[in-house]
Amino acid sequence: MLKLWLLFAVFALPVAAIGYAVGSWSAATLFLFAALLTAATIYAYCDRFVLSMLGARELVIGERPALHSTVEALAARAGVVKPRLYLIADGYPRSLSVGRGPTSSSLVLSLGLLTAASPGELEGLIAHELAHIRNHDVAVQTASVAVAATIVELTRFAGFFQRGLLFFVAPVAAAVENLLLSPKREYVADLSAAQLCGSPHGLADALLRLEIASELVSFAASPTTEPLYPINPFDRSDQLARMFETHPPLPQRVARLRELDPDWRAKLLVA
Q1: Whether residue 71 is found in the same domain as residue 23
Q2: What is the pTM of this model?
């Protein structure tokens, strides 16, 4: 969270300096106020921006009451307010969370995930997202993605010169995400999810299923959204997508989860 506020400060101070160069201290104060107001607006509405960018719609209780019940139970166990549920109507299995923290957040699931994941895998992924919400990762992830996506999308106005402009601004957008988001947040969320579910294997199996899906099902989205997903769903041969990668290696994550229950292979043989 400190990094997030530092980002807003870095955004505001140059604007104030421009105001001072244009006018005086009064102009600098006015420019600084405008910059801080813009930063506060980004913080307040970045989740709506991301939801709109993803094409998500709210999932009402009547459509999937069992899913709402599962989320409510896990949210109570995690000590957070039940997030609002949203659905992405595409076949690629993915989940993500956006918002500002434990009291104001949204959980987004894709139709492909609800179709393909087993109950244990789905519970593990939901618990993983709730851990991000409880740890305030969701606020930093959502704001950083909103800022990075805005920087990248502004290149569309360059028309013919978009590709050339993207060469210069994409590293800046990627730096915003990589400076704010540590890969350690995923390890912590994995551990918290295992504790919430009482077993690490649902999440471990879900991560492996998502990895297989990334090789079999086509996926198209802005690479700036990479921090939102449980794993990196983008093609690692894509140079632009690699710039925005913030997740630790998947084999390490799965190994850490399995180590929480080292006798899991013996249990499978007995079963």
Answers
A1: no
A2: 0.86
pLDDT tens readout for residues 113-163: 999 999 999 999 999 999 999 999 998 899 888 888 888 887 777 677 777
**pLDDT per residue as tens digits for the range 205-250:** 999 999 988 788 878 888 899 999 999 988 877 888 888 999 999 9
Does residue 136 sit within a domain?
Answer: yes
> Domain range holding 38?
2-53
In SS3 terms, the chain reads as: CHHHHHHHHHHHHHHHHHHHHHCCHHHHHHHHHHHHHHHHHHHHHHHHHHHHHHCCEECCCCCCHHHHHHHHHHHHHHCCCCCEEEEECCCCCCEEEEEEECCEEEEEEEHHHHHHCCHHHHHHHHHHHHHHHHCCHHHHHHHHHHHHHHHHHHHHHHHHHHHHHHHHHHHHHHHHHHHHCCCHHHHHHHHHHHHHHCCCHHHHHHHHHHHHHHHHCCCCCCHHHHHHCCCCCCCCCCHHHHHCCCCCCHHHHHHHHHHCCCCHHHHHHHC
Q: Tell me: do 26 and 146 sit in the same domain.
A: no
Measure the CA–CA gap between 92 and 111, rounded to whole angstroms: 8
Residues tagged active-site: 129
